[in-house]
Amino acid sequence: MSGYPTTWRRPPQIVTDRRWRIALSVAVLAYLVIGMGSVEVNWARMIEGGERGLRFINGFLQPDFTSRWRDISNGLIESLTMTLTSTVVGVAISVPIGIGAARNIAPPWIYYICRSIIAVSRALQEVIIAIFLVAMFGFGPFAGFLTLSFATIGFIAKLLAEDIEDIDEAQAEAIRATGASWLQLVHYGVQPQVMPRLIGLSLYRLDINFRESAVIGIVGAGGIGATLNTAIDRYEYDSAGAILLVVIAIVMVAEYSSSYLRKFLQ
Amino acid sequence: MSTFPQTWTFRSPRARLALWFGWLCLVALFVYCWQVMTANTIWAFIWDAPRQAADIGGRMMPPRLSYLPELLVPLWDTLNMATLGTLLGVILAVPVAFLAARNTSPSLLFLRPVALFIIVASRSINSLIWALLLVAILGPGLLAGIIAIGLRSIGFIGKLLYEAIEETDIRQIEAVTATGASAAQVLTYGIVPQIMPAFWGITVFRWDINIRESAILGLVGAGGLGLKLQASLNTLAWPQVTMILLLILLTVVASEWVSARVRAAII
After folding, report:
1. Per-residue pLDDT, B86
2. Distance between alpha carbon A9 and the CA centroid of its chain, in Å?
């Protein structure tokens, strides 16, 4: 080295070895070329669809709430009732499973059973469960209710179990030292510590369930998704735009009110 | 208070009353919603369900292994859809995140609400709905799936990234500003290095979610494994359905493993 370098360059942050950086960029570039190559683009079809795209954007900007309002409101009522009932049932089932899946208060054999229930519920997509439940229970919101309840179990039970594992052991120890039974320990030592977070999670899941209820309707599980699917199948983009705007508005309201409620509870 | 309570109770009487009232409201609401929801339910179908389940279960077993070679190209398509879609989502989400973050947004009054609306709109519409729309507009195929995944990813990446930008350490940014750096230099030397680990973590996390989602996008015609699933369901070829589901499950588990490893290495 002849002299002190006069310019400074920011050192790389993540992959510090130069050879690895080059190899990685070559690999990424090669993948992009191959990956993009595998995408077949039918330009004629796209140009044809352009007009339809414009109509959809127009429909979104000038949504038509009135002409299909009966269908939209029916779909919304189905979605909202489905969301509430499935969240209540899902949370009610996931509380015992969550307690069972917490390593610090459950015996090992119960722990493994509960963890595997959670794993099964989380591994399967809502839409796939919905397809099967629709095949078994018939079309309509009941299949949707079951799907969302099942999906809620994996979500709430897993997060609740992690929360119980993170509690302040000193408080549980103090309750145990008074000679409390296991039920009393859960009631007085664990429940007060996890309750605010459980309520927060339930509200968050309520929000997710509403969004999911718009999706599972596409495969026949009722709710606003079924209405949306019909609207798109009929090429009524102004009604579809109206439905999407209603969904966005409800999600926004739910998100703001649940964050307000969570602040109020904590 | 004149007399001290003789026995200790968990809550004061008033809190207990409020709690009971809250539970009562919830139960009443639940019962009401249940009534509304099941008004049109045909109960005969529901009591019939265990038999249906046993029937479908019997048809699904054993999975048709010879179908596997036919699934490799759709699998590759699914992976491409997820990866290219994530890439598109990142490209679109980064500017939105910078516009939405309180400390980097050029105009808090106008651009920030617009960026926040884009994030909420993208988050509230599932990729399956985006795909449904895009298939109607662009025609069936991978491209619709990629764009659907990309549009859905904007909200997720944008939200987490703008929170990361807002949590950056102000002292480092001030130090860069104090050297007389321009706004662009403050961005590249003050903010970007701080959010880089979060950025890669979020991207890999979203990629993992996108793999799950792209596996089913084919149900509405956007290519990949979902297309084969739809075809098998329509022809009631249950052993093929089992095979596809097993493959999806395997892909999801593998991508989750990869994403957990990468995130552990970065953070």
Report:
1. 92
2. 42
Per-residue confidence band for A149, with pLDDT thresholds at 50, 70 and 90:
very high
**For residue B5, what pLDDT band results from cuts at 50, 70 and 90?**
low
Same domain for A73 and A49, yes or no, is no
Q: Does A137 touch chain B (CB under 8 A)?
A: yes
Residue whose tokens read 């105009």: B107
Contacts with A202 (C-beta within 8 Å, 6 or more apart), sequence order: A87, A91, A156
A-B contacts at Cβ under 8 angstroms: 148
Residues A136 and A107 placed together within one structural domain of the fold: yes
How many residues comprise chain B? 267
Q: Compare CB distances from A13 to B29, B129, B196 and report the shortest one's residue.
A: B196
Question: Looking at beta carbons, which residues of chain A come within 8 Å of B49?
Answer: 136-137
If one counts the domains in chain A, the total is 2
Q: Does A138 touch chain B (CB under 8 A)?
A: yes
Q: Are residues A214 and A235 in the same domain?
A: yes
Minimal CA–CA distance to B259: which of B198, B203, B199? B203
Do residue A52 and residue A71 come from a single domain? no
Q: Global pTM?
A: 0.80
Instruction: Write down the CATH number for the domain with range B75-266.
Output: 1.10.3720.10
Partner B, chain A 152-181, Cβ-Cβ below 8 Å: none
DSSP B141: S
Among residues A134, A156, A139, A143, the alpha carbon closest in space to that of A82 is found at A143
B159 phi and psi angles, rounded to 5 deg: -65, -50
**Does A46 lie at the interface with B, CB-CB under 8 angstroms?**
yes
Quick check: A127 contacting B, CB < 8 Å?
yes
Q: Residue A13: what pLDDT?
A: 67
Q: Give the pLDDT confidence of A27-43 residue by residue, as tens digits.
A: 888 888 887 877 777 77
Predicted complex: ipTM over 0.90: no
- Asked if A38's CB is within 8 angstroms of B142's CB, the reply is yes
